[in-house]
Each structure stands twice: as structure tokens, then as C-alpha cells.
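Chain particulars:
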Amino acid sequence: MTVPSIAFVAADSEAAKAAFDRLTDRYPNLPPEQAEVIVALGGDGFMLETLHRFVERKVPIFGMNRGSVGFLMNSFREDGLLERLGEAQKVILHPLRMRARTAGGGLVEALAMNEVSLLRQTHQTAKLRIRIDGKVRLEELICDGILLSTPAGSTAYNLSAHGPIIPLGADITALTPISAFRPRRWRGALLPHTARVMFEIQDSAKRPVSAVADFTEVRDVIEVEVWEDRTIELALLFDPEHNLDERIIAEQFLQ
């Protein structure tokens, strides 16, 4: 078995920092810029931060849960880490790219590993027009917001908004409204991963809307375009007995 060089990174929590200290006492720890594998210690939020931080490095990331839910993380064990890395299964993810235009004329681009969400900024509901590949599919959606989710992010905010859980190999994204008022019965849509989604904010001066791509928030947007960026590949490593596909299936049978 070839042993990869490792860099450990940890969230700013007592559990994560304690795990970092114990693991770096047992295993060689290189700077992240030199390692072949990055081991992230924390929860799902820290995994997202780590993916964003090292997106240009294109190295696989093996997460161990030192947070709460840990959907994107493996279980934490100090023993046998090198063997686990050697046997781990790789999952390739593609992020969403958001291009947001603001009322002031600004243009902001950002990546989202989980979802891009549009949210009302005041007590007024948002009014949105939705185009898919240039064609108007919904002339007016009155809502608190809407999100477009990747398969990996479908168990996060998307699930809380009653959106569908998506298997990783499905090559689709989930378009999910947040507290839709009109049309009241619209529950969202499943789109091919090649779709380009355009959100046009109606009456934006009275009903301001912000756009959020994971951690990047852009306020007072008037137009937001979102698509899957297949030029970027993010590699996650999972233990064979508890890989991400299995987690997505299991999540749908939780009581």
C-alpha cells in the first residue's frame, strides 16, 4: 500500500483541536501546500470551508467528524488512518457557479458546493421570474426565497426546505422554493445538471433580495445566474462501508 503524505486541518472547536493534537502526534503532518491528502477535522460546515480553501490544489479530502451531523464526514478514529486512506473510495463533486448582478451595477461570481440560495432581505416577500436555459418557466414566484442545490448539498438547506434528496450519480440539481406563497402548490423542480438557471428579481427596490453561494452573500441583487461548473472537480474520500451514496439512500429512510 502506498502511503500518501497528509496534512491535517481542524475547525476552531475544542473537539477538533484536541483531535488535531492527538493525530499529529501519531502521524506525519505536512503543510497543506505539500500534502497529497488533506484530513479535515470538524463538521460539515468545516468541510465546506476546506473544499473552498483548497479548490485550486485539486487534492482529495478525507473528513473525520468532530462536529454535529457530519454528513460529509467519516467517523472519527485515531487508529488505522493510513489503512483507511489507502482503502477509501473517491467521490467527485462539481460545484455550482453563481454570477450575481447587483442594483448598483456590480457583478460578483462565487462557487457553491452545497447550494445557491436567494433570500428576501426585509419583511416583504420576494418576487422572482425564473428562466431555464433562456426560457421563462415561472413568470412570477412570490416567496421567502429559492435555492438550487447540488446532489451533495441536497441533504442540507434543500432538505430543510422540503426539497428532494438526490443520489450523487443522478446528474441533476434541485430547484426548491422557500415558503412559496404563489403559486402555492409549486414544490420545485428537478433539473438536468447542464441547465443554466436565471433568477430575475421583480420590484427589487421595494422587495430587495440577497444571493448566497455557500459562504458568499451578495445583497441587493437584480439578476442571478447559476450553473454547474464541470471544469472544477472536488474529490472527497469515504470509508467503503459508509460512503456518500449509502448516506444519501439511508437519509431517505430516517424516521
Remarks:
- The chain is about 15% helix and 40% strand.
- The chain has two domains: 6-94+233-251, 96-228.
